[in-house]
Amino acid sequence: MCNETFEDFHQIVMNKIPLIDVRAPIEYNKGAFKNAINLPLMNNEDRHEVGICYKEKGNEEAVKLGHRLVSGKTKESRIEAWVSYLTLYPESLLYCFRGGQRSQISQQWILDNTGIVIPRLKGGYKSFRNYLIDALRPAAQKSKPIILGGYTGSGKTILLKKLKNSIDLEDIANHRGSSFGKFTSPQPTQINFENNLAYALIQHKSSEYRHMILEDEGRNIGKCFFPKDLAEHFNSGPVIVLEAPLQERIKLTLDEYVLQAQSQFLEIFGHDTGLEKWHLSISKSINKIKKRLGLERYSAVVTALNSAYADQLNTGKHDKHNAWIKILLQGYYDPMYLHQLEKKSNKIAFKGNALEVLQYLNNYL
């Protein structure tokens, strides 16, 4: 029996080693790791049957059933999928839930049919997951957090990407961090969010930066949330406020929430329905904050949005979208962020425009 194992989880993170997850799709979809592909030994139905057999008749009978279910052409197709992936990524590693029978069987079948020895993760998914959870502890962080704040549309994410020692939390969560923050692609599961965040923290730590620059976030980014103690650690740092005039903020918001967003919808849904789906998505987002906007302001935003959308369909121009963006910034986002900023007034260390803030933060690598 092949028993080659690998347990240097730090190396997996730092070298972005490809992983083959041989668990059933239902397990993989709940949570997996970066650079992992799901090439299961058993499908969901087979796993369910084997699980019942294990409970009723024990491990030996469950293993026999598993071999009967995954045999013949099914077994051949499993081996073919693993070998095809290994041809592209020969440095790959195998894992199942605890690094036990499923990954051992997969490992042995590959060896028997190809002569290839592929190591499996020692302890499997569970051990690697525990390693990543440990990386999320505040005590595991060596660099000091610095929070980049600023009103909506001030260009925080743009500036963040110019800093070597930053971590883009919104990118990890695949969400812009506001009521209008959804992308066309879904957010990761909570488990995947935590795993991906752990990857980023481990890689950041290995660079030995003295500081970690993070955008000012609440505990949640869309449906993803930070562990409470980690969120408190992130928010313990000084606040740097990025300032930008209103017209510049409107322009940046137009680019992100209209131009870029529409481009994504068009790419996915095509020209016939892409713009319509974008308009529906924005309308739903506005409706979600109806109570907080108030009836009068809500009506004004909806009217301005519908007018701008109709004009765009007729002329192909986007200029009129500035109107509803301005109402939202001045009437909703600015008062809300001002209130949040006032609560952090004693933590504000610096204020300035994009160039000034960039120069300031470049001193904190």
TrEMBL record:
UniProt KW keywords: Selenium
Indicate the segments forming the Rhodanese domain, all copies: 13-137
Pfam families, from UniProt?
A: AAA_SelU
State the Gene Ontology BP annotations.
tRNA wobble uridine modification
Report the SUPFAM superfamilies cross-referenced here. Rhodanese/Cell cycle control phosphatase
Q: Name one GO molecular function term.
A: tRNA 2-selenouridine synthase activity
The record ties this protein, via InterPro entries, to: AAA_SelU, Rhodanese-like_dom, Rhodanese-like_dom_sf, SelU
- Superkingdom of this entry's organism? Bacteria
* Name this polypeptide is given: tRNA 2-selenouridine(34) synthase MnmH
Q: Which organism is it from?
A: Alkalibaculum sporogenes
